[in-house]
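Components:
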Amino acid sequence: MQTLRRKDILGLEEMSAEEINLILETARSMREIMQRKIKKVPALRGRSVLNLFYEPSTRTKASFELAQKYMSSDAVSVAGTSSSLVKGETLKDTVRNVEVMGVECVIMRHPVSGSSHYLARNVEASVINAGDGMHEHPTQGLLDMFTIWEHKGRLEELKVVIVGDIRHSRVARSNLWGLQKMGAEVVVAGPPTMMPPDLDVFGVKHFTSIEEAVADADVVMALRLQQERQESGFFPSMREYAETYGLNSKRLEHTREDLLIMHPGPINRGVELSSDLADGPRSVIMDQVAAGVAVRMALLYLLLGGTKE
Amino acid sequence: MLGWEGGEIMGLNHKATVMDEKGMHQALRRIAHEIVERNKGLEKIALIGIRKRGVPLARHLKAYLNEIETFDIPFGILDITLYRDDLIERTDQPEVHTTDVPFDLTEKHVVLVDDVLFTGRTVRAAMDAMVDFGRPASIQLAVLVDRGHRELPIRADYVGKNVPSSRSELVEVRVKEIDDADRVDILERSEE
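Structure:
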């Protein structure tokens, strides 16, 4: 009998292929529940969960909250603004609050890399990282893998291209770790200024030409371009970025017919991804959103169902 | 099988075989006739097998029902894991498998199929799950073996065989689709 023998989900770097596989298999069973008339199972009755979002989020927060409701757990969400956030000190206060409230699981999004590790070390509750700085966003990585797996039936030996600002992207990091563990070949594409200095750690090829990178790809994943990176000088303008690196039908003209087009959302339409591709037949962006709920239900079950010794 | 899902069963001795392949299929055939008789036909019948061994048993039952009357009987598979009443207490977390009920069970006479009726807790969980899928006209229960020791007020409508057993014994149902044979055995704990 397989179980997830860990307290927290902090990143895909520390996870094994077996663990990822168990999560994806469990998520597949959870997806059926979402298609029922009554979308609720009593599995986590009496378990309480706290959602702490120190950064704005619509999709991830809604997805976690729905997953918590579908599993019958009791959840409370607290949204802090980054302006009221004093790094370090606030997190310490958070730890104390969590312990006093006696919740079994904390979901946290935080602008500082490593913050969920800090929280996990200091509380007995399970911690799920919902995005920490530029480090990881493991549930996004898992839902992306689940979406690919559902469409392709496997992850091994697929070629996945991640396009955009790899350097600042926790989504890219989680996908790089996860997909490679599952046997996929990952390459990255985008401006050299937006490649992480530690790209060697991942052992992936970097392309500056999108056309070249996607030529024989099974999946292409566009990352959201963040306006504030322009101000920091990583790229000259949104328009210029779109012209060189944006995904559009002309740029993807010579690609496989069954290429999957993905985006973690929210999309800057016409910048990193054109509208006709985002809404076209090869886009699986809506499937990613649905997969997010199923994967989070699976994680809640695997972390909270059953007693920890 | 109860509580000893898969793997080698250690410290248990074979005590008796209570049903062989022939006996098992005779019992299923008889249950099929009882279902038709009681519901006056198959028009509103639906079959749902409880994972794991209730599923192949329900498939056999469907085939025997169709020998009596040709009718396309809606068929579903139910995994009760997320409805268990011991989920929070257990240290060995059960794996979740997919439920597949591809029809509307409202107005249907749903026959739940399982291998062994013991404490009744699995059936309680299955009934809770059923009502999340709609409002059936009735829920009926068919089991291959009733071994007694109920902990809830639950009884079967169709029983292949009543097997009086002591709590320390294990009633093991094997089906060809999952195990190596169609057979029901009683195992008892060996004296250490």
